[in-house]
Amino acid sequence: MCHDHDSRPPAPPRTGDVAERGVLTLTSADGTDFSAAFAAPAGNARVGVVILPDIRGLHPYYVALAERFAEAGTAAVAIDWFGRTAGVCGETGTRGEDFEWQAHIPQTTPESIDADISAAVGYLHGRTSADLPVITVGFCFGGSHAWRQSGGELDLAGCAGFYGRPSLVGDAASRAHLPTVMLIAGADKATPVADQLALAETMRGAGAEVDAVVYDGAPHSFFDRAFGDWQEACADAWTRILGLADRVAARR
Hints:
This protein is an alpha/beta fold and 252 residues long. The protein is built from seven helices and eight strands; from the N terminus they run E-E-E-H-E-H-H-E-H-E-H-E-H-E-H.
């Protein structure tokens, strides 16, 4: 489990007003409806963010995170993984604590994930501008697929991920070309730090600009406002993600 059910993301270092927030349903290219959450800043967004959740899908943590990104001046969409196998989320628009994700995660595929990310990118472009640069920001399962996008062909400008598994990135690492941020928990019991650093070197060898940082002693899922011991790590992680956003915006 990536976070406790009641966990929520820490605040970003720069904050502003949120003009819009809410859950919605998007449609992938194959006709699949899936749940998502959107948040937009009061001013013009210079960057869009597609948030890729952990194994639980569109948990309230990621709805809140979309709002945090909007506070930081970006337009953000958080997506759910399970439209094909579990349908859209219920009345709350999010996956509850009792959602049995274990039965659904094995049914996801890179192709279906890419199709849903592409739909989210299209939604951001439709709500802002067609030339808005978009980055992925993912966690655990989603962190792996965020990193994988560096070697993909979707309309993305950069990738950032927490707590990812190199095995899910696969041979996309040898094609990596997008700027990538890897946020690594030093005490992560799910994936060895050495494996993540080796992935970073493979991606650099392919030509990607990779910012890989290890937060010594930090546990898997440290990016949580309740984890007071890791406030500095959370602040640094925000700085690196928003730094990536600023870099891709400057390259427009």
